Amino acid sequence: MEQAFFLLLAVVAIVSGLTVVVTRSPIHSALALMVCFVQVAAIFLLLRAPLLAVIQIFVYVGAIIILFLFVIMMLDVRKEARTPFLKKWIAMAIAIVALLTGEMFALLLIGAQWQAPAFMLQSGEMSSVRDLSITLFTDFLFPFEVASVILLVALVGAIILTRQEAE
Amino acid sequence: MVPLSWYLALGAALFVIGTAGVLLRRNVLIVLLSLELMLNSVNINLVAFSNSLGDFRGQIIAIFVIAITAAEIAIALGILVALVRNKPTLEVDKVTIMKG
Q1: A69, burial (CB in 10 Å: exposed 0-12, middle 13-18, buried 19+)
Q2: A32: nearest Cα among A44, A15, A55, A7
Q3: Gap from A167 CA to chain B (nearest CA, Å)
């Protein structure tokens, strides 16, 4: 049952991921990426990580994709739709992608012999948000604060970058 | 029960698709969207290992990845808007303003 759900989600995620890459219009691309992110959120639920699933929906689908859609609608993107793929260096790029594909799946096949310690959380048992937050706010307090400072810097930087020059 | 290797295969497949988008497309917006896809595929791996090893740290690193991604994309889109204001193109190989 769970495997059937995983296969369904994975197939939809991969198909929408391919749509992101091959479609011409950036709007279609962004919407396909939204579909892919929702599938990944459901996969996080299958992995018993409900907090990550919610964060995925809020941050990726609710913030990042919407930001992309705003920017796409702000800019005029109709010209670029005619020649979607790079012409220069395309053979080299395809070679790099093929090499990466081969390498990753070869490593997966080799690594399949190595068995991870079998501690999959059982079905129905979710990892508790309380334990996760206790770890986050004790062991990872300093990285947490650094991340908040980085977010603040990004906020200020984005405002400064996009500000119109005052006459 | 879904085996760990299935999640890893899904993560690898999405990562490769994202790499193809970054390397092959010429529209900056789609390059950025593909970059998001790559980061998200890494998150799948992190959470899968977190579940498999019974350790929260994978999930916590995934949370940090998401936070940094949000910062990165805000900056990237800010740079993009400033760039388009100066030179109205979205094609990656035409952005050569800083070339000497």
Answers
A1: middle
A2: A15
A3: 16
pLDDT digits (tens, 9 = 90+) for A122-143: 555 666 788 888 888 998 999 9
> Predicted ipTM?
0.91
Phi, psi angle pair for A116, to nearest 5°: -75, 150
**CA B16, CA A102: separation in Å to the nearest integer?**
10
Q: What ranges do the domains of chain B cover? A: 4-94
Widest pairwise Cα distance in chain B: 57
Residue B94 contacts A where some CB pair is shorter than 8 Å: no
- Name which CATH class applies to B4-94: mainly alpha
- Chain center to CA of A66: 14
A85 touches chain B (CB under 8 A): yes
CB pairs under 8 A between A and B: 233
Residue-wise pLDDT for B23-64, tens only, equals 888 888 889 999 999 999 999 999 998 888 888 888 999 999
Quick one: tokens of A110? 């080799």
Best residue in A19, A24, A31, A64 to probe B by mutation, most B CBs within 10 Å?
Answer: A64
